[in-house]
Amino acid sequence: xxxxxxxxxxxxxxxxxxxxxxxxxxxxxxxxxxxxxxxxxxxxxxxxxxxxxxxxxxxxxxxxxxxxxxxxxxxxxxxxxxxxxxxxxxxxxxxxxxxxxxxxxxxxxxxxxxxxxxxxxxxxxxxxxxxxxxxxxxxxxxxxxxxxxxxxxxxxxxxxxxxxxxxxxxxxxxxxxxxxxxxxxxxxxxxxxxxxxxxxxxxxxxxxxxxxxxxxxxxxxxxxxxxxxxxxxxxxxxxxxxxxxxxxxxxxxxxxxxxxxxxxxxxxxxxxxxxxxxxxxxxx
Length: 284
Hints:
Number of strands: 17
Distance between the termini: 45 Å
Helix content: 10-25%
Strand content: 35-45%
């Protein structure tokens, strides 16, 4: 049995279950897509929302946001605050460092939206974007993308270039433009959510170099340990809202992509450290 192939098959199955599509055909029945697929989604922007990071340490002062001011009956002015809440992510992207006289790359983006068919818990899967809609970039730009059946753009693609050393730090982001509020129907939130989001960048001209690392003296003790442990590893990009991966060709990075479910194969662990000499303990 090829155990590596079987592990990859299991990972592929799990990716379909978590991100989609896990069903045959273009119709999801019996469950809402927001409940069926927990990963790989860009939610609509929530109106007037103040978000918090659920992974951050709790701080009572940060649980409330200043919303404005109002005048009391006595004529005094007091601040109006409201509780913060977790706001689901509406964007994903990555940054990388590139150098060259004429840097050029094209970005491929894709997503899926689900439209309710009118029947109870039946949603039609509609694919958006793909190779035919890839866009080439040579400078800063922001473009509306992922048009629906009526021609309305559901998302935006933003590319920002910042000069650094002898090259540029380039950030590529895909964001959901659709808006949802607490007063809207819950089905509207599902229909305005982008599923199975894909974002990748293909380098046409220029060279991707090592991504700049943070100055060692600015790291805390734990970060310094991690930096020492992995200092030999090449880092060509960092992710925003998801992990990032890259693929090399002829010793050069030619593709960078966002990955909502990163996978790494862990080497086999063994307690046998003797090697060929079989001398486990020896004193000089």
